[in-house]
Design brief:
The complex is a heterotetramer, with 2 copies of chain A and 2 copies of chain B. Chain A is an alpha/beta fold. Chain A has 12 helices and 14 strands. In chain B, the strands form 2 sheets. Chain B has a 5-stranded parallel beta sheet, with helices on both faces. Chain B has a two-stranded antiparallel ribbon with strand order 4-5. The chains are: A alpha/beta, B alpha/beta. The structure holds thiamine diphosphate (TPP) (2 copies) and magnesium ion (2 copies). The site of one magnesium ion has 6 residues of chain B, from strand 4.
Chain lengths: 320, 316, 320, 316
């Protein structure tokens, strides 16, 4: 059995082994193996290629841009996605614009341990994918399975553009698979995580599992809900979403991020624009509540969408 | 100091017993430094403590219940369960509530001091503590430079506890002593061996005094060792034995107790009695808080704005 | 005659005169009067209350949070909205969360000279309102008229929460009014900038004027297009938008920002969710192109939506 | 130096004639410093010039056409009309293209040098220039500290031209001389009077040499005055006459010409002839570029990704 977190570690080990241009840079990633142990043993297995950085997110990303210019393929670990804000400028204005401005490629992978866990509070729980997605020049991956964590991270390192790899902390230990995948969908393709005919839930990352649990619950009542796992939110696989809505006529977009804008707005807006006639009833969104992410598990459990609230939203949608 | 230590030991026990959500971060070994700062500050001053400042918080007037309630997520705590562990404060009483992003609180204290100046208040000091690792952040730099330009009565205590999480000093900075940074900001810098309470009281006390007298920002760089993991989840196996056994690795609390006894100011029996008394206080606080209600999602406004009518609510 | 820029100056003069808790902090705002002269003469008129900051956006915003805690009402001028990125962390994680965490109010106004002008290029042209809008705890104003520039800036300073005041650089000199307004709609209310019956264009800031020009053009063909000026994008006045769509049955959302997410996605998603049955045809979006903002006016004129492209999108919409 | 000066004067004229979109930013008075850096660098080194580095760019091998094309927005320029004025470069030739955000290029150069180290290259130097104002940015701090920790062969030239736009030094920093910052990073610092070409060649040259020899990051703080507005839209009325007439206010180009004549290395007639020749070169470049096509929106891919098939295109 291999966990989501181990898959991330294995993908990095393979990337380092396969390509001498790859190195890892981040706080505590060397001997210590990172705050979450995602780089455990890599420093000793690949001497000189897994380096501790100072607590300097701006310089960490800026240096990765320079290294990319010179032909390297850096992996930058940000300790928590929330701490990417001091590096925000280098991500959105330097890495994201380099190729367009200079025609020099910028193959950087920035790993962002994302999303909430019980007790992690306002500054260790954020889901920033929708914020970054607004910027041209970035690719944003949001793996929901152990297999995707592995194969998409390998793909991220291989892609010639800056990739934000939003790995979900809640899935790190919770999610296990039999082994590493041997084949995978390419980046840019969404996956039908569960087939259904009555409604489509579009979700990504940890929310895929809440959606699957909700679908299971509704299945007991005779409803078959289709769950689309976006896998990457930029690019966003509109075709797969539209095809699903064409089958079901009903859409619920679920995201763990805040309600204004973000993935659920983009999904609903695209379906409304491009698949209006496919919709039998108004599309719906379910997001986190519009406050910072609370510390106490009681509050946190209400703040984020969960299987019960997804199921409730689906019942409403199915009743329409 | 003693209260801080025993309180944190209790919190660590609760953590190990699975009674605390999220992390527990100890200031073990940093109590002398932190307490010295809290004691040097006066009511009306501003203090933005960081993760290892339980002692300073208490010395500056934090109720022990504030800490316990925040760690245990009591609805009655200052953060009402919205925030946990070290992320607490009562800004109206001069105790700013830290955000996690390292370095971010320094400029907030600067702004607080600018406000006091606008308001015509004099003799106010603003203080905050950071670690060696925080010195690498852009926020640290921008704020210290701003303080220097504005000649603000800021006291910045840098607790060089040799590690930023697992990262040793040599991967964090390359100057001999972080106090050398003071020169580049054009502010006064001081160093102190933070295993010695006397020295801390003296150096930190003087730094606060100087700031209060209008000599501009003061930077105190303290040398010590973190005598715990980064958080209680961390066994800190990366800290070399030699360092633990070096003078830097001494426990400021034990050193202080020895000094008290050497000077004849307290006997072993006195110390034991204090400890008992303090432990009692801690146990009572925890017992009280454990009976308190957890926050109730139904009672939350789920609104981040104070101007609730401008909240962007969603009907769908 | 008073320009949009002068209105901003006048509002700040009035705020300083009316309330001793107000001060202005920013690069070059003192004697020099700011890069755009939005604070011209204010330093001498209000000694000690208009201060030059170092080039330290993080500390500028961080200090404003501290000053707000102590009861001040700072106005922070960021020289260009694009340069708010180094201050991003303090804005989204400190200012925006303060009240929710501590119940201490955070009445900060951050002025963001926003949007493109000919020749200003990738880093002096950005429209970041949609990025900030994703965060709870912020209010985001996007005035499109001289009157709103004045009255909404005064309101921004009066609001007890952090406000990002996205003033548009293109409108600074182009837009003139007879005088300062004596009354105004409150923040949170959108304005019907032009009445119509055939289609609704939802726009904000500089795009309102492109939309109005397009509406004028279509009017020659007998189409009457309604233009909704959002005025504030957070809060977003869904009611006014829905009421307009109820009248017209057709929706085009226009924004100067990039196409992924942002204001147009939020508007379309809300209308699709809450006003699905009001729509006669699929809603449409028109945004800037998905690249950094080009320097050369030729390219810039194609990158951003303009009256002709809005008109074309409207014709498509009306043909449906 | 002379070419840079005359080129920029021409660009300023074009700006005044309304022939240039966006701003024009001159390095007037900074040519000796900038050129010294460009000359000290070798092919294979990395150079990230900033706004006032026309001279250094030319010395490091930038074609004069690159500058003119970028300013005039020629489709044939290195930025193809996408970027303007000083935002240009050819990273593949070691000339990084600046983004506007001050301080951002320093860490990029650090990363370039880390890459070269990974690749086993030695003897490479990476250099970049910033202004006094840039020293207040968090980016400046994080990058210099990173360079120090990694002991990178970085040369950072700080051109203290007394103003950051309109903001004088005393509102930007409070140390005596910005070179004091070097101590706090644990790197070598140097100062130079940048009105003197000889001194610049010497000090900057030695700094580059030291970096190349493996002595770690080198910081050169140069004193001079910006002899122009921030950009050509700015009359710089805020610069005091006394400063203009002080030694700091001298024009490095005139000083250099005098030196040449004093030493008998060139006569007034020689100088005049060089000037004529150089002017000719500038005029030709401008004439060439003025005949070149502007960028055509229809030819643009409107895609920011190199992996075009992953572009998030919109059908609606
Ligand atoms: C900007 C930012 N990056 C990363 C982190 C994650 N983090 C939390 S504490 C810590 C180490 C801090 O070390 P130091 O400043 O020396 O303080 P100490 O824990 O030793 O007291 C890190 C990296 C953070 N909080 N903020
Ligand atoms: C992060 C950031 N904030 C603000 C600006 C706007 N800005 C451009 S140049 C400048 C002044 C720079 O002064 P200095 O660093 O001394 O360089 P100089 O212009 O004097 O050469 C400012 C404030 C910017 N480019 N980047
Ligand atoms: Mg430390
Ligand atoms: Mg300068």
């Amino acid at each position: 059995m291999i966990t989501y977190l181990e898959a991330i570690r294995e993908a990095q080990a393979k990337a380092l082994a396969d390509d001498p241009r790859v190195y890892i840079y981040g706080q505590d990633v060397a001997e210590f193996g990172g705050a979450f142990k995602a780089t455990k043993n890599l420093a000793s297995a690949f001497p000189g290629r897994v380096l501790n950085s100072p607590i300097s997110e701006d310089a960490m990303v800026g240096s990765a841009v320079g290294a990319a210019i010179e032909g390297m393929r850096p992996i930058v670990e940000i300790q928590y996605a929330d701490f990417s804000t001091p590096g925000f400028n280098q991500i959105v204005n330097h890495a994201a614009t380099l190729y367009w401005r200079t025609q020099v490629k910028c193959p950087i992978t920035i790993r962002l341990p994302s999303g909430g866990t019980a007790g992690s509070g306002p500054f260790h729980s954020q889901s920033m994918e929708g914020v970054y997605a607004q910027y041209p020049g970035l690719i944003i991956l949001t793996p929901a399975t152990v297999e995707d964590a592995y194969s998409m991270l390998l793909e991220a390192v291989a892609i010639d553009d800056p990739v934000l790899f939003c790995e979900h902390k809640y899935l790190y230990y919770h999610l296990k698979a039999e082994g590493l995948p041997t084949e995978a969908l390419p980046v840019g393709k969404a996956r039908i995580a569960r087939q259904g005919r009555d409604a489509t839930v579009v979700a990504y990352s940890a929310m895929v599992h809440e959606a699957l649990a909700a679908a299971e619950e509704l299945s007991a009542d005779g409803y078959e809900v289709e769950v689309v796992d976006l896998r990457s939110i930029k690019p966003l696989d509109t075709d797969t979403i539209l095809a699903s809505v064409a089958r079901t006529g009903r859409l619920l977009a679920v995201g763990e991020a805040w309600p204004w804008g973000g993935v659920t707005a983009e999904v609903v807006a695209r379906v409304a624009s491009e698949g209006f006639e496919l919709l039998d009833v108004p599309p719906r969104r379910l997001n986190a509540k519009n406050t910072p992410i609370p510390f106490h598990p009681n509050l946190w459990g209400t703040h984020r969408p969960t299987a019960p609230t997804v199921a409730r939203a689906l019942r409403d949608l199915l009743r329409l | 100091m003693l209260l801080a230590r025993l309180l944190e030991e209790k919190l660590a026990n609760l953590y190990r017993a699975g009674k605390i959500n999220g992390g527990v971060f100890l200031g073990k070994g940093q109590e002398a430094l932190s307490a010295s700062l809290g004691m040097a500050l006066k009511k009306g001053d501003i203090f933005a403590p960081l993760i290892r400042d339980q002692a300073g918080r208490l010395a500056f007037g934090e109720d022990i219940l504030d800490a316990v309630r925040t760690y245990l997520g009591s609805k009655l705590g200052p953060m009402r369960g919205r925030e946990g562990n070290v992320h607490r404060g009562l800004p109206r009483e001069g105790r700013y509530a830290m955000i996690s992003h390292l370095g971010a609180m320094i400029s907030a204290v600067c702004g607080g001091l600018m406000a006091r100046r606008f308001q015509g208040q004099t003799g106010v000091v603003g203080a905050t503590c950071v670690g060696d690792g925080c010195s690498s952040t852009g926020a640290f730099h921008e704020a210290l430079n701003l303080a220097a330009v504005e000649k603000l009565p800021l006291v910045l205590v840098v607790a060089n506890n040799q590690f930023a999480y697992s990262t040793p000093n040599d991967r964090e900075f390359a100057c001999k002593n972080l106090v050398d940074r003071a020169i580049g900001y054009g502010i006064e810098g001081h160093t102190v061996d933070a295993t010695e309470l006397d020295a801390c009281l003296d150096v930190v006390g003087r730094a606060v005094e100087r700031a209060r007298e209008g000599r501009g920002p003061q930077m105190v760089v303290a040398t010590l060792l973190r005598l715990a993991g980064h958080g209680e989840h961390d066994d800190a196996a990366y800290i070399p034995e030699a360092l633990k056994n070096s003078p830097t690795g001494r426990d400021c609390l034990k050193v202080a107790e020895c000094t008290l006894m050497e000077r004849g100011w307290a006997s072993a029996a006195d110390l034991e009695a204090w400890r008992e008394e303090t432990l009692q206080q801690v146990e009572e606080a925890v017992a009280t808080v454990q009976r308190e209600p957890a926050p109730d999602p139904a009672e939350e406004t789920w609104c981040a704005l104070s101007t609730q009518e401008l909240d962007d609510t969603f009907r769908a």
